[in-house]
Amino acid sequence: MGFLSRVKATMRENESIQAMNAMPPEERPVLVYAEDDYTWNQLEGYLVVLMDTYDRPVVYVTSDPNDPRFADHNPKMSVFCVRETIPKFLPTVDSPVFVTTMPDLDSFHVKRPQDSTCVYVFHSLNSTHASYRLGAFDAYDVFLCVGPYQKAELAARFEAIGKQDYELRDVGYYKLDRIAATFETYEKRSPDETTVVIAPSWSPENLLATVGADLVGSISGAGYRTVVRPHPAFFESIYPEGRDIVAGLERRFADDPKVVFETTITSEDSFYEADVMVSDWSGAGFEYALGTRRPVLFVDVPRKVMNDSWEDIAITPFEDRIRTEVGSVIPTAAAGDAAAAVGDLLEDPAAFRDQIDAVREREIFNFGHAAEAGAAVINELIEDRTAPRP
Q: Is the dihedral of CA 26, 32, 36, 41 positive or negative?
């Protein structure tokens, strides 16, 4: 974005901020911040219930000027775009409740709203220590926890730093519920083909970067329809190598009719089409397994570690513990033989369904009802913050 474009964008954002500040307090009891349009996939259920069941208006602030919410949203939701001025805007938010899926408030240049109860909504099933930066959650007040493991991890972290004013609420994971509900009624478009979807993380040593060609070649060479679905970060500045990695694979398999590349995640159809997923340390593998009750083949590339001291919390991360319960793991060196491992996973689908059901029951709060649980927490917080004081 050029200088003049940035100036114009800032002017528009300032007008939006003024419009928000001019709203009566009762019209903005909760302000939600979304980093991009994908964030809606995580928040939709909670906000819909909050608006429809509790009759609460929502101010939705997105940093994506093309967010579809501008064209289509609940009448109770006001939508604004703030991107360039987010570091200046967020600390000034004075809605009673602030909700976001963005970690690291107060860690860098973006500070938390000082006058709001800050609610963190998890955007992944992964544990809170190895996959996130040290201190990523220290500035929040209330957490909509996915399962018991996140409560234990956060409690251990906060005890270590002496944080006392926080709430860990049993909510679950709305996105998982949505995947499961959609899958139940989904009609497969390629019912005569066995489909394998490859969904990596975006860490520097993710499976596409390390063994992408061998992996795709093995699976498509065995006759499986092979969908390569890179993480969105492959096409963003956060992972500058990503585009070239995908482009190289597209050239390599341009003449292979069995290989399909999905370079956006606006649709989740490949989740529902796939009989098996291949992943690494991405949270997508666990969403797929627990949402569709189908297995995942994990390629054991080096894990994405955002916190070098994660082992100080002596709790084995969720993503380590359940890989062999929802699928199988192969070493990186075996990627060229991945098709054989996929074949093994396809031999007894019922056994994996039973195992996955057990994991879901044990690890996830309120499966199928996370939206209601999360909305109830947010509504309770609004009531607490807006109730008349004696």
A: negative
